[in-house]
Each structure stands twice: as structure tokens, then as C-alpha cells.
Design goal:
Elements lengths: L8 E2 L2 E2 L25 E2 L20 E2 H4 L6 E2 L7 E2 L2
Antiparallel strand pairs: 1-2, 3-4, 5-6
């Protein structure tokens, strides 16, 4: 769930996104409410007011099987959180 202030909620709880300095709804051209389909991801950029992401009908939900080509397994920044990702 994405509210008009740019907060992302998962199962009713606001997602902690300390890397977002300017929360915004941004440009939205998909229909709301939006249900993410099976085998798909809803992706959001970290500069919400200008990012072109799943909020755009041109991009929409991303197919895990067809469009995801890698998996993050190591974080290098910030340095105090350097390490493998579970």
C-alpha cells in the first residue's frame, strides 16, 4: 500500500526506509487500488518524486521470471552494515 504522503505500508505497517529523504507520491499513471500479480514485483525508485518505476503504466509490475536478472547477496554501504544479506 502506498499512501498520498509517499509512505509504503506492508501488512498495515509503515516500511522503514531511512534512505528516502523526500517521500512523495510522485507521478502515478496506474489504477488504484493496485494489486501486484502472482510472480511480479512492484518496484519503487529511491527518489520518489522523479523516479520512473512501477507507479507508471509504462513500466508497471516487474516479472520475476522475465525481468529480474540477479539477486543482491552482499551490502557494501553503509559501511557499518557491510556484509551478506540473508
Amino acid at each position: 500500500e502506498l499512501d498520498s504522503s509517499g509512505n509504503v505500508r506492508i501488512d498495515g505497517k509503515i516500511l522503514d526506509e531511512p534512505y528516502i529523504t523526500d517521500k512523495a507520491m510522485g507521478e502515478v499513471s496506474i489504477d488504484w487500488p493496485h494489486q501486484v500479480g502472482e510472480g511480479k514485483l512492484f518496484v519503487l525508485g529511491d527518489h520518489r518524486s522523479t523516479s520512473h518505476d512501477s507507479r507508471s503504466a509504462l513500466i508497471g509490475d516487474v516479472s520475476i521470471e522475465e525481468q529480474v536478472i540477479g539477486r543482491v547477496f552482499l551490502r557494501v554501504w553503509p559501511l557499518n552494515k557491510f556484509g551478506f544479506i540473508q
